[in-house]
């Protein structure tokens, strides 16, 4: 057992010191032990206090919850709870990558265009019938139906897999075996629609339809230089499922 101050992100500590408003806010909680037992105990306490549990991750550590400052200060006292971060709004991030990543040079030297690669783009939608995505292996496999035709997700999928019908649009892996797409908001897990841990396990299942070697997305929680409970949840996915992100 250690002092509750060590369980709270610096932004939360600063807010409490300055008298943050008595309003609901969204937080990410990390339990000490992986699995449902500690998460269920934390969830029960939150519900008893009148808070909201948005999602849990039965195979891992991380939870999404909504609490007032008073509820937060009660929950953080629990022995089962390891750390709490503020949870911000989802963001989009993207840039042109083929030239600056060295992909053009690598292809010119080796001729490699992605043969044998199966991978997933998790982003804000994907236009699955786009002309650049109808290569020899067909259109994208959809891992989270329904998926909208969002422009940002379509661009990110194109960065990875566009065939090059329009030369300037050619992706990093135009010859990949199969592209997969997922609606990024689906992975946020709010309302237990899905959880990223289970989703990642499905991606690498050797008997499943996806059999991916990496997942990429240009969306996510607000950018930070800190190692947060969301960072830890992602590392847990990568180590347990041996997938690149």
TrEMBL record:
This is Peptidase S8/S53 domain-containing protein. Gene3D superfamilies: Peptidase S8/S53 domain. One of its GO terms (molecular function) is serine-type endopeptidase activity. It comes from marine sediment metagenome. InterPro entries: Peptidase_S8/S53_dom_sf (IPR036852). One of its GO terms (biological process) is proteolysis.
